[in-house]
Structures are given as C-alpha cells and as structure tokens.
Design goal:
Chain A has 178 residues and is mostly helical. Chain A has 7 helices and no strands. Classes of the chains: A mainly alpha (178), B alpha/beta (203), C mainly alpha (201).
Chain lengths: 178, 203, 201
Amino acid sequence: MDSITKEKHIPKYINPYFGGVLLGILILFTFYITGRGLGASGAIKSAVVTTVDKVAPTHTESHTFYSKFISRDNSPMSSWLVFESIGVLLGGLLSGALFGRIKKLRVEHSPKITKKTRLIAAAIGGILFGFGSQFGRGCTSGAALSGTASSSFGGLIVMLFLFGTGYAVAYFFRKLWI
Amino acid sequence: MNKNYFILFGLLIVLSGGLLFLPEKTNYVQQSPESLMWDIVQPTRYISTDQVAKLIIEKDPLFQLVDVRPDYDFEAFSLPNSFNIPIDSILTDEANDIFNIEDVNTIFLSDDDIKADQAWVIAKRMGYKSVYVMKGGLNCWIRTIIQPQKPSESAPITEFELYNFRKGASIYFTGAELSTNSDIKQEVSITRKKKETVAEGGC
Amino acid sequence: MGPLIPLGQISSGWDFIIALIIGIAFGFILEASGFSSSRNITGVFYGYNFVVLRFFFTAVIVAMIGLEYFDYMGWIDLNMIYILPTYLSPMIVGAIIMGVGFIIGGFCPGTSYTAIAIGKLDAIVFTLGLFLGIFIFSEIFPYIEDFYYSGNMGNITISEVLGISNKLFTFIFVIIAVIAFYVTWLIEKKVRKTINPYKFE
C-alpha cells in the first residue's frame, strides 16, 4: 500500500481487499451449497445448551429457551455451526502455522494497560457479545456478514448498529487499544 | 492509494452496475419443445365437465378454477369459486400468485377448449406442473350440466346415472347461483410459497 | 441449480463434512487477513487501521454481486436461501450490546476462535465470556421472552423494506463501499502521522 504501513513489525497479513474477495467467494459458495451463510456464535450456544442439559436435564426441559434446541434424538452439539466452528479453529491453526504466528500462550494488549486489565476487558466484552448475539439473532459473521450478503433487512440493521455503536463508544475505551 | 486499487474499484462498480442493465430475467424453468409436445398430445390434461361439477359440489380444496375469458364475460356468467385471469394477463404477478399456491391443481376454462388450451400451454412453459383444462369449456358445461339431455329409453343404466347426476348438479348450480349471485367472485387469498426455513438462527 | 443441500442435490449426510471444510476456509481467511489480533481489529474504530472495513465490505459486496449473477444465470434459487428473520427492536438492542462488547473485548466470536488457534490467552477468556453471556441470556430468557420476540417482520429483505430492486440496492451498496474505501484511506493516512506505530504480537 503506502510507505507508512511498511513498518518493521507488521506481520505478513494478506491484503484485506484480497482477503475480502476470498471471503466473499466463500460466502457465495456457502450459500450455493448449503443455502445459508456462515456463523460462529451458534456453536457456543450449542455448547451452553449441552452443558446445562448435562448438569440439569429437568431444568432445560421446562425452560422455554433451552427446550427450543433440545431433541432427545440428537445432541445439540451435532449441529452445522458446531462443525463449522471447529473448522474455523482448524483453519486458523493452518494459517497460523503457515505464516509462523503460532506461539506460546500470550496476551496482546496496549502498552498503557496491564495484562490483567486486558483479560478482564476481554471477559466483559465476551459476556456482552454473547448476550447481544442472542438478541441480534447472530453475531458479526452470522447476522451482519451473511445476513447483509443475503440482503436480509435484519442483517443490515445489525451491521449498522454494531459498528455504529463501536464508533460511538470507541472514545471511552481508547486506553484499551491505543 | 495505489492506482491499481482504482482499477479494482472500477471493476466492482462496473460489475454491480451491469446488474442494472441485465435484460429482465425469466424466473421460471422453460420446458423443452419435446416434452411440451408429449404433454400436448396426451389427453390426460382434460377434465370433463362432470368431474368439474363434482369438484365444485364437493368443494375440493385441491382444485381451483381459472377462467381465462375476458372480464366482461366473466362478470356475465362464471362458475362458482372460479378466478378470472384473462389470457392476456396470464403472465402478471397476480396470476403467478394464484398458480403458485402449493399442492393446488389449476383447471383452466373458457367458452370452448381453445383459449383454455392456450393458457394451459403458457402455464406449462412457465413450469407449472399440475395444470388442467376443462374439456369443452363453458359451452359444454351448459349442454351437459345445466341443460342435460334425457337419454333414450334403451340407453344403458350408466347413462341414466349420469343424467341423474347432471340433473342434480343443474339444480345445485342454477339454484345456488340465484341465491349467491352477489358474492360469486371471491376475494383472492394469496399464500405465497413459504421460504425454506432453517432450523436455527444464523450465528 | 443451487442451493445444493436444501434442494437435495447433495445428500444431507455430507452436511457436517462440508461444514468442516467451509469452516476451515473461513478460519484460514480470517487468520491470514489478520483478524487473530484484537488490536488489528479495533484499529477500525480509532482510524489507524481500516482492515476490518475493507475486508468486511469487500466480502459483502462480492457475495452480493455474486448472488445476483448466480440468480440471473439460474444457478441458485434465491427463494431457497435462508434469509435471516428481522426482529427490529431486539436486533437493534442486541447490535448495540454487541458493539460495546466488540470495543471492550476486541474480538467477535469468529475471530476469537482463530486467535485461540494461534495461542492468544485473551481470546480464550473472550470465548469463555461468550459462553457465560449466552448462559446468562438463557437463564433470564423467561423474563425477556416478550421482548425477544417483539418487532417481528419475518424473513424480510432490504429491497422489500426500501422498495427498490435487489440489483439497484447492490449497486448503491457498492458505490457506498467504494467511497468508504477511499475516505478511510485518507483518514488512515492522516491518523498514522499522529499516532505511534504499534507493535503486533
């Protein structure tokens, strides 16, 4: 791109436009083959339902939310999105290995905050994201990305409000990142 | 920004702009001439007026009647519960909504066979499978159902049974028409084909 | 004609294998484009790094244009693809909560999986947080059920809401995206002069 980005420490990521085209083609073929888009948070939902079902089966049966996802024939873990998410993990592993980014466990954070702050922030962010994804009927990949690509109105709404909120509150959390 | 990016952006705009200039798409699968020919020579597309009368009397929900005559003819006389789609508006969206109702067979009718047959061919070409034609049209309807001819004394018993059925149907239709003349033309209730629903949310 | 699995052209037994392969491709693309790094992702909100926007918009417009052409060529039946249903108010609230979670956590679910793959501890914590967040949601669901189902608009598409054709919307969307690409490039150039270059890990 331009000369400023050619920093010494920048790892060899592929060009974002090129990555975007690849992802666009992948979404297209996912729709062509399966008739639906990509997703990610659905796998966690399956994991939650499975865990709660194992710990307290009577609770899940009477519960209006869990009972939607439980059938006695199939474990909720044998769902499309669970396999897809395992694939995402493997794909990340593959790319990380190829570009030499797999290292020991580490925490990436802004020099202005401590490791602990970053981990607490990550946990809070995760809780909020998980909670919100249920109301949003999907996360960035399921609702915003695949939803908008299939021209679902809800997908567009999620995309606009997700990134819009990000910009609106970014200032208050700038210490976490820059 | 690298100049090459502008070329790529231009390509994207051209590709998406090209969408706007695509000729109108035919959103149905066309039937090949051979299979259309086979369908045309088969007499199985015809349904007799007696069968139609029976369907109407029994209020069979799996069949719907589509009258392809012009609307002024339809206003003057029509079969109960039939829809009016003049043959020149058979390709409109409203017509498609009627043909698209799932698991419902469509029977075309007109004054005679010809217009209904033409509508049938068009519908076939549009890819609709369960379409039929009322044999003989409304002329035949009047002859057989409304004013049935009494068979001769020596006719077989089946003829008499048919005659009795027609006589009954005639009373049913002429009687029913007098009383419900005002609300013959039903409101068209449209149930579009349901979209494929996938079990769980996207993400 | 597609989609292949809903129309029964590939038996559903292949479902999970295809899911795995699509997942691997998705994970590979995400990681290779740099979304295993949370600071790389959140750069989009501070103007120093717009890779998310470039990546995201390019993917959406390529898929949109592709679907339109596939539909035109008769390769895919757009009536058979899954249109995410719209529940207006809960979706707006959900997206706002996700937006806050995004800026605090620095990941979204898909990217956190790839970050776990290359050994980011914060991504593991984020994913545990996701688990907890969905668990909390499920537990309090009976109290928020009414809101969860409110504002139901069904499987409505953007063009149905705006009253323009899908093709026209795709074109407008592409124009907006290209303008965004150019503007963010200008912003990025400006911001990078004032901000210290940061080190990726």
